[in-house]
Amino acid sequence: GVSFYTRSLPCIFELYNLFYWEGNKKKVVPYNFFDLLNYEVLAYWIMSDGTKNYGGLTLQVQSFTVLDVVFIINCLIIKLNIDCSMHFQRKQPVIYITADSMKNLKPFIEPYFVSSMKYKLNK
To answer: Model pTM greater than 0.90?
Structure first.
């Protein structure tokens, strides 16, 4: 058999609490999302929930409400100057970042990418 142990760090639990409503474990966008958002956060988000798509990139945000996704898009546009829009996959919202915007973002987010995830960045 195989066994392993994991550790839980208090700082990770604090982040978890920002994005999950304790009443029913529903995912939410925290009110201070704009302040939390930066290029490093976006890089990690793309590595975990980004899908390369027609030269651009799709952020998988299906577990958020349409209003939350609109709020996220506004934060991306205003704070990071990202050309993005809401699309739907299987009637669920996703965020599409254009190919041109990915090209402009690359120098800011690539330093945070692990090598195995760099395929998500456009050449």
So the answer is: no
Dist CA 92 CA 66 (whole Å): 8
The answer to whether residues 96 and 84 touch, using CB atoms and an 8 Å cutoff, is yes
Tokens, residue 4:
């392993």
Angle, helix 66-80 to helix 39-49, in steps of 10 degrees = 140
Residue 65, helix vs strand vs coil: coil
Pick from 116, 68, 120, 118: nearest CA to 95: 68
Owner of token pair 């929930």: 49
Q: What is the residue-level pLDDT of the chain in tens, covering all 123 positions?
A: 888 887 778 877 788 888 887 666 778 899 999 999 999 999 999 999 999 988 899 999 999 999 999 999 999 999 999 999 999 999 999 999 999 999 999 999 999 999 999 999 966
Select from 100, 97, 115 the least CA-distant residue to 50.
97
Instruction: Give the C-alpha separation, 45 to 105, whole Å.
Output: 13
Structure tokens at 48: 């975990």
